[in-house]
Fold:
Amino acid sequence: MTQHDAGGGFDTARQREADTPSSPVLRFGPDKPLPLDAGIAFAPWQIAYQTYGTLNDDKSNAVLVCHALTGDQYVASTNPVSGKPGWWSLMVGPGKPVDTDHFFVICANVVGGCMGTTGPASMNPDTGAPYALDLPLVTIGDSVRAQAMLLDALGIDTLFCVIGGSMGGMQVLQWAVSYPERVFSAVPIASGARHSSQNIAFHEVGRQAVMADPDWCGGAYLNHGTRPSKGLAVARMAAHITYMSDESLHSKFGRTLQNREHVTFGFDADFQIESYLRHQGMSFVDRFDANSYLYVTRAMDYFDLAGDHGGVLAHAFKDTRTRFCVASFTTDWLFPTSESRAVVHALNAAAANVSFVEIESDRGHDAFLLDEPELFKTIRGFLTGAARARGIHPPTGGEAQQ
Amino acid sequence: MSDVQMTEARVDLKAIAELVEPNARVLDVGCGDGALLELLTRSKGADARGIEISQAGVNECVARGLSVIQGDADTDLADYPDDAFDYVILSQTLQATMDPSLVLRQLLRIGRHVIVSFPNFGYWQNRLYLLFHGRMPVTDYLPYSWYDTPNIHFCTIRDFIELTREVECTVEKAEALNGKGQRIPINAPWWLWNLFGEQGVFLLRR
Structure:
């Protein structure tokens, strides 16, 4: 967690990705502002996205994948900053549960992110410097609105499915509520209709860690050539604990010592878990922007679908014709099954078509990103059933990528 | 509940499916492995959903492309609005509910029609078993011992008819199926149904 990154390779790559991403990007001028929930018509702005597979002739096979807090548009292809495989390459691809031989998959970077969609690291055309905290606060609703404008530009009227986990699941629910007629099916995984008080509390710890770092410089670190790396790493470490279960931590690390026989009676990383968390924190700093972390965690905190509908969640889904598949994991304590069940109850009260699966896993919240055969089986089965109902045929020409 | 489903439901599936109008909105409460949901979707074009208490059963159904949620007939029916479905089906599940009368009232509230099928405890084989063995019947058909059965509220066809009077619903159609799953002639008297019917299948409305 030294200042190795200032001017280093990762840093340049990341800064470049914020404005000119390696993926396709759509730029909207002053004539097409993004209406923000904060009450501002924001322009100019841009959205970065990635697509996989082929759109069929009647444009009925589009699947929008929504990424989680620190994800990006590189769902099934190499991440240009970290060089690692796509974050959901187990789920999305040819022959995978979200099968790109059949479906046209789109994934966009959220508003406030740092991988090519307008965010605090993007250049403010008025000042010639990054926005930093001058960017208005953005919400999950804003991201969904931005995605809808992207789809308009791509000429896609209806999505066959919107799918995502955690914050991605929030976007899925927001899509179903904001654009019911554009969503044929929806799959929110390990998510909920609101961010709980406990979740907000963890996010606040993370944000305070970032802001307490002297290198944060009131948010203007990009101008000062510094990075609040220590603060952001601590934020990530705290968050990472919430993504895992006590069981998985215990089975993976227990109280095993790191490269030593005895404790040192000091504050070195004696335990494997400490060393693991430090590694997680450090590698996160290399690929993510600290201010983006503040903005996107805030967007999650503000999310409350029932609050937007007179406190009754069922009202949000009134007359919905979307087919839902809600999934949760037994050891997820960040978005416990009860949060998913509340969504299911509201959907029942709206007489919606809904499936609900609780998947047994010892890996906590992060299970949705991992190799969970039961989840894959569920998604594959649900999408197959929904595709049958939608009358989707695979794209013509067999151009699907291998 | 699910085990009961999987071993016993087959016989009455066709009889139930024949009671359902094409393209109806159907909720199958206690849908087990989803066999009836699949039959209704395929043969009747139904918009069919299910509730199942066992998570394993639910996961299997969803993986097969059926719309099913994990839930309990005793508690979760309250979430559904009035008249949400054309048909609500309770197949081989009534005897496993905590409060059959309350469940039946809920079914009549959320469905325009209600179909209930249940094993008839008054079936002659059950009577003979009790008569000769002096013990609670354990048969291929009712494979549980009295102390570990999910079936906590057995009734006979006559008992069920009494329950329909209690909840003040109308019997639109009633059938009894014999041990081979065949219909007992419709003009047979009730006592004959109650003796030779292995299962009762009732179509009800408010």
